[in-house]
Amino acid sequence: MSEIEIRDDRAAGRLEALGEGEVAGRIEYFVLEAPARALVPVHTIVEPAHEGKGIAGSLARELYALAAREGVPVAPLCPYVVKWAERHPDVAPVADPVLLEAAKDWLRAHPGRF
Predict the structure, then answer these.
(1) pLDDT band at 19 (very low <50, low <70, confident <90, very high)
(2) How does DSSP classify residue 89?
(3) How far apart are CA 72 and CA 10, in angstroms?
């Protein structure tokens, strides 16, 4: 994998992987505020020219690291992040079912967001 930089664009709800001067991939997420604060990844997207380079995994790892730095859990709704977390329980704790349900409710209440 070539060198990538990952940046958090909280205002846009994107964790972006930058490589070769462009956005190579991203995780789209929102911040759940109730019943507790959590990061909720909804989609992981890697541009076709950058597939197979480990970008999605790097993004997922950074999302969990970001959450750990902020002292909040991750409640993944993105199928890729769910599978990644299952393979990396050492850095991706199991999500609280109450937070997952609240995240699903939030997403249903904001249908145009993602």
Answers:
(1) confident
(2) T
(3) 15
pTM value is 0.93
* Tokens encoding 32: 């759940």
Q: How many CA atoms lie within 13 A of 7 on its CB side?
A: 9
Instruction: Name the one residue in this structure whose structure tokens are 């990952």.
Output: 6
Give the pLDDT confidence of 39-50 residue by residue, as tens digits. 999 999 999 999
Q: How far apart are CA 6 and CA 93, in angstroms?
A: 21
Q: What is the pLDDT of residues 85-98, one digit of tens each?
A: 999 999 999 999 99
Tokens of residue 17, six digits: 């992987």
Task: Compute the distance between CA of residue 48 and CA of residue 9 in angstroms, rounded to an integer.
Answer: 22
Helices (H) and strands (E) in the chain, counts: 3, 4
User: 40 pairs with which residues across the strands?
Assistant: 30
**Cα–Cα distance measured from residue 114 to residue 110, given in angstroms and rounded to the nearest whole number:** 8
* Residue-wise DSSP of 15-39: EEEEETTEEEEEEEEEEE-SSS-EE
